[in-house]
Structures are given as structure tokens and as C-alpha cells.
Amino acid sequence: MQGRLSTQRKARTGRGALLMVAAGALALSGCGSDQTQDEPAPAGEGDGTALATAQVQDGDGNEVGTAEFTEAEDGLRISVNLSDLEPGHHGLHVHEAGLCEPDSAAPDDPSETGDFLSAGGHIGAGEVEHPDHPGDLPSLLVNEDGTATMTFVTDRLSEEDLLDDDGAALMVHSGPDNFANIPERYAPDGPDDDTTGAGDAGDRAACGAIEAANG
């Protein structure tokens, strides 16, 4: 009987020693992990190549910030950093021509004039309805102090869309974009042309011609 108890004590002691050694190895591994292993970057992030930039201005010609367009693993990363805008939600789109001219005429209707109409409509506006245009972007939320910072990735746009022969422009509208989401109880016949064209986002408040990053 005494021999069996002694054997059991030795077995328990051996298992305890193995557990202590294993715990020590894990502790040492944990201590060195910060130096030997990097955390993986979140999806869509990383060191992308800068493709284009835009200097954004309001209708009076005042600079209100910048936008940067870079390559991303999942598409095109767009980063905006703006100020001196009206607080609230604003429609944000990429328009088909890189002309941000105050009090200009719309390319398809010269009789229609207004700030930044020279930039034309959304990229892809003639192919599908809003909010499925390639140039349709997430809403921009402007803080009470007039600043807005946002970064996102879109797979709808490419470098060729931004830097083709007539260029492109980043547009901030004066009002929120409803993305043509109008319930039938408000519009039994469906959204009208203004809604399916630009989401009723209102006037063009700020615009930035998109230019090649090395240009």
C-alpha cells in the first residue's frame, strides 16, 4: 500500500513539474511576442500607392481641405480632411469632369448655371440610377466645429475613372443624400428624377478637381 501511494505522489509531482515548465515556456513566448511578431493589418489597410489628390474649395474660392486617393487591397481608398463646412450630413460624390468652376454652366445644359456645375454629373450617371453610380460615396458627417474627417474603401472606382482625359472631381453637396430611399407611403409612384439622379443632396457646396499624385 505504501509503495502505491509513493508511486502516485511521484506521478502527481511529475505532472506538476511538466505544467510549470509549460507555463514558463508560454510566459517567455508572450514576453517576446511584441518584438518578434507584428499584428496583421486590418483588411483594406496598408501602405498603398498614392494615386491622386484633390484640393477642395467652396464657391467663394476658399480652400476647405484635401482628399487623397490611394491603392488598397480591396479597391480604392479615399481619405478626406475638410473644415469650414456647415454641420450635418452632406452628400459626397465623384463627378465626371475635373472642372471646379464657380458660377459655371452644366455641360449638358448651358442654360443651367451655378457653382461647380462644370463638373457634370456623377460618374456612371448615364448607366444606372443613384445610389448605384460608381461615383456615389458614403455620406459625409460634418461636426459642429465645421470639420469632417473620413476614410473608406470603394471597389466601384478605379484609377482610370479618376484620371481619364476629362478628369474627375470630388463634390460635397449642401444637404444630405437620401440614396433614393423614399418609402412608398411618401412617393407611391417611386422617387422622381431629382432623387434618382443625386439623392436630393442639394446644391454643390465644395469641389476639388482630382489630379495625379505626381502631377
Automatic annotation (TrEMBL):
<comment type="function">
    <text>Destroys radicals which are normally produced within the cells and which are toxic to biological systems. May play a role in favoring mycobacterial survival in phagocytes.</text>
</comment>
<feature type="domain" description="Superoxide dismutase copper/zinc binding">
    <location>
        <begin position="65"/>
        <end position="210"/>
    </location>
</feature>
<keyword id="KW-0560">Oxidoreductase</keyword>
<feature type="signal peptide">
    <location>
        <begin position="1"/>
        <end position="27"/>
    </location>
</feature>
<comment type="similarity">
    <text>Belongs to the Cu-Zn superoxide dismutase family.</text>
</comment>
<keyword id="KW-0186">Copper</keyword>
<dbReference type="Pfam" id="PF00080">
    <property type="entry name" value="Sod_Cu"/>
</dbReference>
<keyword id="KW-0732">Signal</keyword>
<dbReference type="InterPro" id="IPR036423">
    <property type="entry name" value="SOD-like_Cu/Zn_dom_sf"/>
</dbReference>
<dbReference type="InterPro" id="IPR001424">
    <property type="entry name" value="SOD_Cu_Zn_dom"/>
</dbReference>
<dbReference type="InterPro" id="IPR018152">
    <property type="entry name" value="SOD_Cu/Zn_BS"/>
</dbReference>
<keyword id="KW-0479">Metal-binding</keyword>
<feature type="region of interest" description="Disordered">
    <location>
        <begin position="174"/>
        <end position="203"/>
    </location>
</feature>
<dbReference type="InterPro" id="IPR024134">
    <property type="entry name" value="SOD_Cu/Zn_/chaperone"/>
</dbReference>
<protein>
    <recommendedName>
        <fullName>Superoxide dismutase [Cu-Zn]</fullName>
        <ecNumber>1.15.1.1</ecNumber>
    </recommendedName>
</protein>
<keyword id="KW-0862">Zinc</keyword>
<feature type="region of interest" description="Disordered">
    <location>
        <begin position="30"/>
        <end position="62"/>
    </location>
</feature>
<dbReference type="GO" id="GO:0004784">
    <property type="term" value="F:superoxide dismutase activity"/>
</dbReference>
